[in-house]
Specification:
- The protein is of the alpha/beta class.
- Strands 2-4-1-5-6-7 form a six-stranded mixed β-sheet, sandwiched between helices. A three-stranded mixed β-sheet has the order 3-9-8, with helices on both faces.
- A hairpin with a 3-residue loop joins strand 8 and strand 9.
- Helix 1 runs parallel beside helix 9 and helix 4 runs antiparallel to helix 5.
- It is flat and about 60 Å long.
- The relative contact order is 0.14.
Length: about 375
């Protein structure tokens, strides 16, 4: 399930500090632009209380969480689409990720340089959005020239693509991202192949000071939330500095630290889960005495393909899946009782796996 969420933002907004906390990968972090040049990639475990509860029920020899990738991409500056600040290289890195976590500076600190000289979250967002839009506009203009000739010759597929490209061009010229454009299913399929930067789903990450994290949203965060709401995006509020400290603690110490701060859950756990869902990823479980494990699948995946995540033989020789919903299993207290209560179902090849399903696959190869 090789999908990755890219962490982007202007220089010095806390991207690499956040990435280090998420992955504990030790990416370089410093108070000057372009500290990150080549993208850092790190695997993260997806926090899931359901996995912990299943472990308590089954008492397996080991428990294995599911994971996915975060990519830390260098800070983008105004003019990136024209090559400013190594912009072309950085934009190509964004093109390779599947979703964007846009880190926005929502704190004041005279000791940390702001690339534009002042803290203004909406301006920061618009700078990056515009650079992505300009890069996409250039791509679309080139494609329009190529496809237009075929469309004029009444090539049906070219005509559909040309219409979609014209819609996108109009949106870009009005500084609107591709994801805001109303496209037909046929147009979406074609446009997806263009790998447009502004078609990728976005999650905004408001990086605040320790004081503002504990006292509630500041005015900067409120403006980011209003902006995100206007495009149906989500906002996660974090303090990268605190999260970097939390990341160094083990489970019990972490819980005590959060309790002292009066925080129920770390911002990073929220961010990881939100990014996981932004990528269209979901989780099912296998649970036995040898191992309780979480598996990552794409939303809407059918049972044989979900089985193939474990091993290709499971998909090739799929017979059926024995399925019980997580809540039903927990309520029953054991798989045996769940079966007695009729909560365990037999599902075939057309079954679409639900998030939280606990599954035992039957196969023959």
């Amino acid at each position: 399930m090789a999908l990755t969420a890219g962490i982007v933002g202007l220089p010095n907004v806390g991207k690499s500090t956040l990435f280090n906390a998420i992955t504990q990968a030790g990416a370089e972090s410093a108070n000057y632009p372009f500290c990150t040049i080549d993208p850092n990639v790190g695997m993260v475990e997806v926090p899931d209380v359901r996995l912990n509860r299943l472990t308590e029920l089954v008492q397996p020899k080991k428990t294995v969480p599911t994971t996915f990738e975060f990519t830390d991409i260098a800070g983008i500056v105004e003019g990136a689409s024209k090559g400013e600040g190594l912009g072309n290289k950085f934009l190509s890195h964004i093109r390779q990720v599947d979703a964007i976590c846009h880190v926005v500076r929502c704190f004041e600190d005279e000791n940390i340089t702001h690339v534009s000289g002042r803290v203004n979250p909406i301006n920061d967002i618009e700078v990056i959005n515009l650079e992505l839009i300009l890069a996409d506009l250039e791509s679309v203009d080139k494609r329009i020239d190529r496809v237009g000739k075929m469309a004029r010759q009444k090539d049906k597929e070219a005509m559909v693509e040309h219409e979609a490209l014209l819609k996108l061009k109009e949106a870009f010229e009005n500084e609107k991202p591709a994801r805001s454009v109303d496209l037909t299913d046929a147009e979406k399929k074609i446009v997806y192949g263009l790998h447009l930067l502004t078609m990728k789903p976005v999650l905004y990450v408001a990086n605040v000071s320790e004081e503002d994290l504990l006292s509630g949203d500041n005015e900067y965060v409120k403006t980011v939330k209003e902006f995100a709401a206007s495009e149906n995006s989500e906002v996660i509020v974090v303090c990268a500095k605190i999260e970097s400290e939390i990341a160094e603690l083990d489970g019990e110490e972490k819980a005590m630290f959060l309790e002292e701060l009066g925080i129920e859950e770390s911002g990073l756990d929220q961010l990881i889960r939100a990014s996981y869902h932004l990528l269209g990823l979901r989780t099912y479980f296998t649970a036995g005495v040898q191992e309780v494990r979480a598996w990552t699948i794409k939303q809407g995946m059918k049972a044989p393909q979900a089985a193939g995540v474990i091993h290709s033989d499971f998909e090739r020789g799929f017979i059926r899946a024995e399925v019980v919903a997580y809540n039903d299993l927990v309520e029953a207290g054991s798989m045996t009782i769940a079966k007695e209560k009729g909560k365990v179902r037999l599902e075939g090849k057309e079954y679409i796996v639900e998030d939280g399903d606990v599954i035992h696959f039957r196969f023959n190869v």
